[in-house]
Amino acid sequence: MPLEEIAFAQEFKTDAQKLEMQQKFNAGKLRVLVSGSQLETGFNGQKKLGLEAHLTVPWRPDQVEQRDGRILRQGNENPEVEIRRYVTQGRDGRPSFDSYMWQTLETKKKFISQVMAGNSEIRTMEDVVEAALTYAEVKAIATGNPLIMEKAEVDSRVSQLAEQKRSYLNQAHVHFW
Question: For the segment 132-145, what is each residue's pLDDT rounded down to a tens digit?
Fold first, then answer.
């Protein structure tokens, strides 16, 4: 593939440059376009899209939907399209950071869906912020050392239980007075 058919979206900084990139992509003059968040909104380059590859995991479920919306759109001239999601594999039976991020997205999506559906049977929902990795857990995943990961998990669980105890005692105090 000729080098001039490959582009990086972050190199197109002005509105005029972005429009030129979009036009070249829709005309098939650019065949590979590498992007981070630059193309999540406002990019109408769907005419020739045949393959979308997620190399990173975004933080919000709507960002995944926005990315996929680039290729699953009216005006795409391809009768079939493909979406790929690349993730790193964990070591020693431990999850990778990518798998943690996809799990976090799943938790957020479930919460959003429950709220949007107005499900009144739901009494509590784990706070998404509480589900975030601690610095120790990120370090443990990065090192791949199962003992560091185990310690981080135990520390996290102890913190969760301490918070539950505080919450319980606060509620018990309110009910007895």
Answer: 555 566 666 666 66
Structure-token match 């005419």, residue found: 47
Q: What is the DSSP letter of 128?
A: T
Amino acid at 116: M
- Tell me, yes or no, if the pTM score tops 0.70: no
175 pLDDT band (50/70/90 cuts)? low
Written as one letter, the residue type at 132 is A
3-state DSSP assignment of residue 170 = helix
pLDDT band for 50, please (50, 70, 90 cuts): confident
Separation of alpha carbons 4 and 65, rounded Å = 29
Q: How far apart are CA 169 and CA 151, in angstroms?
A: 27
Phi, psi of 25 (to 5 degrees): -70, -45
> How far is residue 80 from each of residues 44, 57, 71, 86, measured CA to CA in Å?
18, 24, 10, 20
Cβ-contact 29, 13 below 8 angstroms: no
Spatial contact of 21 and 7, defined as CB atoms under 8 Å apart: yes
Distance CA 46, CA 75 (A): 7
Q: How far apart are the first and last CA of the chain?
A: 75
